[in-house]
Amino acid sequence: MTIKEFIRNNPFRVLGAFSNDSSDIISSNNSRIKAFAAIGKTVTFSQDMASVFGAAPNCVKDMLATCMAALSSPEGRLLNGMFWFMNQTTTDAEALAVLAQSGDLLEARRIWEDGEQNMSSIQNQLMCCLLKDSRS
Description:
The chain is mainly alpha-helical. 64% of the residues lie in helices and 0% in strands. The relative contact order is 0.17.
């Protein structure tokens, strides 16, 4: 699996969550995705980053179960969290909105570089670098 595939299929992304979201939010999103699927519809979240990837995640029942299992342990949350975005500050929210709307990795990274440097800004800048370098 390439880094791009790993990030594209990240359980946090598939479940419409940021890596610092609570288990309650993740579980709620999982239920919402299943409910929409039961009536033949899809649900999207800004956390999908569809503008970055070109499409929202393809959420099928087996994939949802796999994603929930991957995030069921602290180790799984940590591993997958290292390869997804955090949303902890107003700067994060601003840059993540740019990504969700336009997919502009360079502009989002500039926002984080110009803002306060903390754990989430560093993590998110790294994600932009990984995605920029892995785009086909």
